[in-house]
Design brief:
globular; two-stranded parallel ribbon
Length: about 220
């Protein structure tokens, strides 16, 4: 597999994949690496200067150095905030894997590492014909899993890790993200995850009302 990047997936939607991905970009840049982000498929966009733009994709673009073109960061921008398969259908758009591969190749030429953020949880389809596993295989990337620390996260994390490994993809690590400040026994849950998940933890991000990826990157512990 190509170790010049990785694919960020999650245990569910709304668990902070974009913030973690941006924090990873800042952590990589702190090591002196050229790091750029990519959000191949993004649903839920607004019209800005005549173009569809997604908030998460813009966050990754801002966290990147050098700064890539938006069209390469997010080659498939879908207006409706729906599951991609449904958003594609409503927009009358066909998702072409070759288009994503070409955009990723352009990003790879300008960076040492490309951080690719997926959609929703690992099992969420990209389209009626493509799963996220298909993209991981096409881009030859290992996977990093984001675990949102909230009630039920142990079950969701273990199931997701098992599904990634059973698919034949390579799972390199996971990042805990403190999304629920009122979660009971959060430290104990985190310790259980440390012992139960089969790959190393790359960091635990604290809860933040307005997350700043640059500051949160201090909690990332990248492997050598």
């Amino acid at each position: 597999m190509d170790t010049r990047g990785f694919y960020v997936t999650g245990t569910d939607t709304g668990i902070g994949k974009s913030v973690v991905s941006a924090a990873l970009l800042h952590a990589l840049r702190a090591r002196g690496l050229r790091a750029v982000g990519m959000k191949p498929v993004a649903s839920g966009c607004e019209r800005i200067d005549g173009h569809w733009r997604n908030e998460d994709a813009l966050l990754l673009q801002t966290a990147s150095d050098p700064r890539p073109d938006y069209a390469d960061v997010n080659p498939c921008a879908l207006p409706q905030p729906l599951a991609p398969e449904i958003a594609l259908r409503e927009a009358g758009v066909e998702l072409e894997l070759a288009t994503i591969q070409a955009a990723h190749a352009r990003l790879a030429t300008m960076a040492d590492v490309v951080v690719v953020e997926g959609v929703g949880g690992w099992a969420a389809p990209l389209s009626g014909q493509l799963d996220q596993l298909d993209l991981v295989r096409a881009l030859r990337l290992p996977v990093v899993m984001v675990v949102g620390l909230r009630l039920g996260c142990i079950n969701h994390a273990r199931l997701t890790a098992d599904a990634i490994l059973a698919s034949g993809a390579r799972l390199d690590g996971w990042v805990a993200n403190g999304i629920d400040p009122s979660m009971a026994r959060v430290d104990e849950n985190f310790e259980i995850l440390l012992h139960r998940l089969p790959v190393p933890c790359w960091g635990r991000l604290p809860h933040a009302r307005q997350p700043d990826p640059a500051s949160l990157s201090a909690a990332i512990r990248l492997p050598r």
